[in-house]
């Protein structure tokens, strides 16, 4: 098992670096923008091209492994996590940033066995930061070990979150209700990088104390959640329950005391799960 995981890690890092080159080059081209679940859920040909590149390259090396890829799911592939070795891929996390050349864009690759993330790679390709984690083996950025912040007082914390791409009025109300509660605690600040994977790497790096979001997907958080755990942090549901990769809800924090103060402030809602088939033939 150990050797397989090292091979997976090495391959994930190599292919993420290659994907990052493609993304950086594409920044100077015209970016044709299409939409998916809503008018603000963006996708480009580069997202699709990078996902194909990653999946093809992994298939050649690990023909038995399964995939859950953001753009494959958008094209109708199922989004079901099994016990089999599975690569969970977000080819461009931060597509809106990519479209606008806002400088935080990541390639996120998580690898699960028995539904548990064993390897996580987040390549923040415009910063050239390669974040890596193996379960039980620590978290690193460009080879340097990561450690979450030791702050226990939420009032002295920075909290990261995102607004997502769901503009239903009830969801927007919940987002603002959570924000108002958290800002009024008060906290030192609220931030959002525009990519879940980078937000999680910021928690792992100790730059922000916590990140929460509802409505993102498993490919946004699979790799980054392992970074946080391996940097000494915790990952849970926004209501304080157990984390569930497919629930589309996450709260990742440096420690339990900060996390539980946030749980009291977050107005939760339940997006449709990633593994629930809503409309026949479509997996979202
Ligand atoms: O679609 P991408 O850019 O892969 O992922 C982003 C989600 O679309 C967005 O809803 C979410 O808020 C953001 O955190 C995520 O990274
Ligand atoms: Mg994403
Ligand atoms: Mg994406």
Please tell me about this protein's structure.
The protein is α+β, with helices and mostly antiparallel strands and 284 residues long. The protein folds into two domains: 2-145, 2-Layer Sandwich (Fructose-1,6-Bisphosphatase, Chain A, domain 1); 154-263, D-Maltodextrin-Binding Protein, domain 2, CATH 3.40.190.80. It is built from eight helices and 14 strands. The protein has helices spanning 2-26, 45-61, 70-74, 95-100, 169-183, 196-205, 218-230, 256-263; strands spanning 33-35, 42-44, 66-69, 86-93, 106-113, 116-124, 129-134, 139-141, 144-145, 158-161, 189-191, 210-214, 234-236, 249-253. The protein has a seven-stranded mixed sheet, sandwiched between helices. Helix 1 (2-26) runs antiparallel to helix 2 and helix 6 (196-205) packs parallel to helix 7 (218-230). The mean pLDDT is 95. The structure holds the ligand O=P(O)(O)O[C@H]1[C@H](O)[C@@H](O)[C@H](O)[C@@H](O)[C@@H]1O and magnesium ion (2 copies). One magnesium ion is lined by residues 47, 70, 90, 92-93, 95. Residues 47, 70, 90, 92-93, 95 line the site of one magnesium ion.
In short:
This protein is an alpha+beta fold.
Provide the descriptors you would attach to this structure in a database record.
Fructose-1,6-Bisphosphatase, Chain A, domain 1, D-Maltodextrin-Binding Protein, domain 2, seven-stranded mixed β-sheet, binds the ligand O=P(O)(O)O[C@H]1[C@H](O)[C@@H](O)[C@H](O)[C@@H](O)[C@@H]1O, binds magnesium ion, metal ion binding, magnesium
